[in-house]
From TrEMBL:
This is Spherulation-specific family 4. Keywords: Signal. The keyword Magnesium does not apply. It holds the Pfam family Spherulin4. Residues 1-28 form the signal peptide.
Length: 271
């Protein structure tokens, strides 16, 4: 009787997983790492210079890195350390995005646009990553204006909004972004997360997830599989945590960084 019950439970679980994948059909597309690269580019210290490891990994998987010199672009050209680090990433083929916070659509548009201008003038990057992005329809006009402002610049092509949570579909249909971060949270919340139905109506390239406090490589791989089933192309998973002393989950690479790169590469090779 116990064996029969166990068999039935296993069959139901398998059917549930299959139904999940069928509900959110996966595009035949390459997974990409979207990494908040908020560590300082210590090129002069090989033991702490994580940027070179990111650059090296770009030979295996597509990588988009978000750089954040000083809660934004600072006041002008990058210092020599950032200039060196950006050059290393650029030569490796990493797509570069500049960090700009928007205070959930409350920050003055002129201030935001001035930071976009600084990135465009001095940093030789590919696009903008808007943090603290609003998720409700009431702020669509605000972000659409920024989207159009960026798209009018010949050197900037990519706009990512980091809502980090459930987001109104209008941000894609307007559009107000090329990619939206629909999840930024602790690892356990990822398993309970319920994707909105519109994920199956848009390409995987429009969705990203950033998952921190993931304890080990086995769990990391499991969560990547879940992201694939949910039709998400851009992702990053780390064991760094806001519960650590520095309170920043994005200022170091995960201890299983190379395993993460290898696993994503293995998935991409099957596409």
């Amino acid at each position: 009787m116990y064996r029969l019950a166990k068999f039935i439970a296993t069959a139901l679980l398998t059917a549930s997983l299959i139904a999940c994948v069928m509900k959110f059909p996966v595009e035949a597309t390459q997974l990409q790492i979207l990494i908040p690269l908020y560590s300082y580019p210590t090129w002069y210290d090989p033991d702490t210079y994580s940027w070179t490891r990111v650059a090296k990994a770009a030979s295996q998987v597509p990588i988009t890195a978000v750089i954040n010199p000083n809660n934004g672009p600072d006041s002008g050209a990058p210092n020599k350390d950032y200039a060196r680090g950006l050059d290393d990433l650029r030569k490796a083929g990493v797509t570069l995005l500049g960090y700009v916070f928007t205070s959930y659509g409350k920050r003055n548009l002129a201030e935001v646009e001035s930071e976009i201008d600084l990135y465009d003038k001095y940093y030789d990057i590919n696009g903008i990553f808007f943090d603290e992005a609003a998720s409700g329809a009431d702020k669509l006009d605000y972000y659409q204006e920024l989207y159009n402002y960026i798209k009018a610049k010949p050197n900037l092509s990519k706009v990512v909004l980091n809502q980090g949570t459930q987001t109104d579909e209008g941000y894609l249909t307007r559009p107000a972004a090329d990619t939206i971060v629909i999840f930024e949270n602790y690892s356990k919340a990822w398993e309970k997360y319920q994707p909105q139905p519109y994920l199956k109506r848009h390409g995987a390239k429009h969705f990203s997830c950033l998952i921190h406090t993931v304890p080990d490589a086995a769990t990391m791989k499991k969560y990547i599989d879940i992201a694939v089933a949910r039709n998400i192309q851009y992702l990053y998973i780390t064991d760094d945590s806001p519960d650590d002393r520095d309170r920043d989950p994005w200022n170091r690479l995960p201890s299983y960084w190379q395993e993460e790169v290898n696993y994503i590469q293995s998935i991409n090779q099957k596409v």
